[in-house]
Amino acid sequence: MREKIFINDIVVKVDAMILHQGEHDYVRWAVSSGLMSDVLTTEETEILLISSLSTTQVVRTADMVGANAILLCCGKQVSTDTLSLAQELNITLLSTENPVFETCHLLSEMFYKEK
Amino acid sequence: MPHRFPISTEKSPNIIMEVILRLKIKDAMVTKVITAGRDASMRDIQKLMKKNAISGVPIIDHDRLIGMVSVNDIIHALDKGHIEEPVHDHMTKSLVVLEDDMPLSFAVSYFDKYSYRRFPVIDKNRKFVGMLSSRDVLSVMLQQLNLEIKELEDKIVSERVELPNQIMRDFFIKKFDFENAGKASFELKKVLKEKNVHAAVIRRASVASYELELNIAIHSDGGRIVFLLDDEKIEIIANDTGPGIDDVEKVTEEGYSTANEWIRSLGFGAGMGIPNTKRVSDEFEITSEIGKGTSVKSVIYLEKKNESQ
After folding, report:
1. SS3 string of B129-165?
2. CB of B121 within 8 A of CB of B130?
3. Would the pTM count as exceeding 0.80?
4. Which residues of A lie inside 8 Å of B (Cβ-Cβ)?
5. Are residues A57 and B268, on separate chains, in Cβ contact within 8 Å?
6. Most buried among B85, B266, B274, B284, by the most CB within 10 A?
7. Residue among B193, B215, B272 with most chain A CBs within 10 A, to mutate
8. Closest of B206, B259, B234 to residue A42, by C-alpha
9. Which helix (H) or strand (E) holds A111?
10. How many helices (DSSP H) and strands (DSSP E) are in chain A?
11. Rounded to whole angstroms, how far apart are CA atoms B246 and A87?
């Protein structure tokens, strides 16, 4: 099983805002896509879902693959529906002004640690 | 001409008759009504009408309805120079009224019988309690029919019978209802968790059901999804009522999609739904007929032999 990466460290790294603090304080891997069907193919568990979409279906998708947190990029406006679904399903919801590529770049070293 | 009921009692569904017989006039009437007393002048009424954009004012004396002033009465008063005189002498005194305990069907026939657009409503003590317009009837009917339809839908849900040792869940999915797409899968996930099913299996079942649920919302005219869970396997059965797929072989290929830009902007419609479902299923079947609908069955075994626990 992959190592735990703490959500608080991610928040600091990409200068994210915590919109909802969910059940878990860590993730084990990250998946980034604007296509939810792609996300559904992942085999990884307890992931951070990075996306530039902010619809309720992003939260639903995160729930289906058992993601621990969602990071919305590009400072996208988050609807109250999306936020309340994250609260209902108790999945951490973060938002950053950074675009997807920059976000992934900033986070990559946390996930690809040199042993 | 003999009076007839304006709704065909033979051809309309029973439910409409039931609703208008069950509902009372008091369920539909408006109780906040702008009224005036007997000492008001016709001019006062005219100003009241202008200010509130209304076309009729009931005249009340000690809770009793003693008359109505309509726009016609105002025009008449202006014409004859009575506009500054008290309403009492110029209002319409012979009124057709409804009683609040009467069934709504009574009001419907009154609207047909008389040319008035609204009726004053009194209670059994002849106290004035409200006004009823055809608009009020319509809006309360729509509300009630919505409730009735919901109840009917819920009834269909419980039609299928669970076998012993089987858990069954049945959900309706409406066309383009993205707000609720995913709810069925969420419920499935909950049931599987309660049954202590292995996490990897829960995940595969969730993905299959979610993709199928979204497919119904995106591509079909609406449908339902049924989950059947026993000790051995979970079956996910998705049925829709149309429009059907002309080439089912094609949709099982990755990348084949007929989704529009709007669907794509939501993060779906890349032609991965069916391939994804197939990938996570142990058994997979799809049948479709143009004009009839599509049926997909996905079976996932709770314990796969080569899957590590």
Report:
1. EEEEEHHHHHHHHHHHHHHHHHHHHHHHHCCCCCCCC
2. yes
3. no
4. 34-38, 40-41, 45, 51, 53, 55-58, 60-61, 63-66, 81, 89
5. yes
6. B274
7. B272
8. B206
9. helix A100-111
10. 5, 7
11. 41
Tokens representing B103?
């069934």
- Residue B4: predicted pLDDT: 62
With beta carbons under 8 A apart, name residues in chain B contacting A40: 207, 210-211, 272, 276
Taking contacts as CB-CB distances below 8 angstroms, the residues of chain B near A46 are none
* A51–B268 C-beta distance less than 8 A: no
CB contact burial B128-140 (16+ within 10 A = b; e otherwise): bbbbbbbebbeeb
Nearest to A64 among B178, B185, B273 (CB): B185
**Whether the Cβ atoms of residue B65 and residue B122 lie closer than 8 Å to each other:** yes
As a whole number of angstroms, the distance between CA A68 and CA A65 comes to 9
Contact A81 B189 (CB under 8 A): no
Q: What is the pLDDT of residue B159?
A: 57
Q: Which residue has the tokens 């819920």?
A: B154
Does B13 have pLDDT greater than 90?
A: no
pLDDT tens readout for residues B128-178: 999 999 999 999 999 988 888 877 777 665 556 677 788 888 888 888 888
The minimum CA-CA distance between A40 and chain B, rounded to whole Å, is 6
